[in-house]
Sequence to fold (430 residues):
Amino acid sequence: MKVKVNKVNEFTRKLDIEVPWDELQTDFDGAIKKFSKKIKMPGFRSGKIPRDRLLKQFQPNIEADFMDSNFQKYYIMAIQKEEMTPVNKAEISDVKFQMEEPFTFSAEFEIEPKLDLPKLKKNSLKVQRSKYIHDEQDIEDAILQLRKSRATMQQVEDGAAEGDYIVCTLQKLDETGIPIIGKKFEKQYLRVGQDSFTDSQKDKLIGLKPGGVARITIPFGEGEKESDYEVQVDNVERELLPPIDENFLKQINPDLDSEESLRADVSNKIMQNFEERSRTAFEKDLVDTLIEKVDPAFPPSMVNNYLNNIIEDVKKQNNGEPIDEEKVRGHYKPIAERNMKWYLVRNKLIEQQGISPSKDDLGNEVQKLVDRTPSSEKEIRKFYKKPSNLKRLEDDLVEKLILDYLVQFANVKEVEVQTKEIRGKDNANR
Fold:
């Protein structure tokens, strides 16, 4: 086999491939036999038609079948010979073949770029690590959420107050106040004083009792503009929060014996959550700093393939409903480009540093998971016996080893952040 490599541009290669007749004759003989089984000819059994007779009548057809069936084989042999790994489907052109002549064709494709990483030195990666300082309000909010998660609902007859839920039927009205047919929504829940309610709309709901009626102006449904609705009240429900007593404490944690111990436990969990938040942000900053330093280029097809996969995922999530593919591509393109850069840098780091977890490393990771939930040991070990699940664990461990390697080159700036400064932002993003 002869292979000529043509460099079209930085990422694109075109292979001119020539396979001599003596190397493909056996494959062609096989193509003749295969073709003979598809042909019915009077006087001959299937597959028993003489070779000369077949070639005389069907040689062009056999040659065409041979080309269609075998160019992929010789293409793979060619890229293996040249030690190339395409990142997209090759465009095949100039396919030529005639019996007893060489088989020639061209294949054009993109390849991963060859990447050179800069020599990392101590303090060469400038990153920031946040230290979060939480306060009593964080603890109060967390305890309130714990109580809300165990709240009960009680029907009330004395009229809706702020924070109550009104179970109702919503009837959409036109501009003149006439009900719109087909726009009646039963068993809806309105929280008095929450979400999109202005003070004027909230005041219309306060005091409503079962059987009551009110007219309000609200947006209802995703993407809907404000419209007039008639509220027909079925009942009013009030959220009853449990007291912080012995029963409540035991539900939260059997080791708790007082409100003070609850507050200490909650404070510790808040601190752990913020430490995890800080660690995740630090690791991302570390990776992004390295990506920016290397700034690897990559062929367009790598991002296109990534975005195509995202498009398919979004379509599945949308249950077959049409989507704006260009909008989805535009939204995810920066993410795709960042991930492609990290993919290239990550692979080069693995190659250069020989990063590969051992069987013992993987076993230790599984054991850590078992130690966290000993009661689920059997299920955990069964889960990681499946190769695909173990591969995901291995990938996670590789990522951890890479980050451990990069940390030694980090120039870390510690920044204290008061949680009260971000509390409003976090609530707004929920």
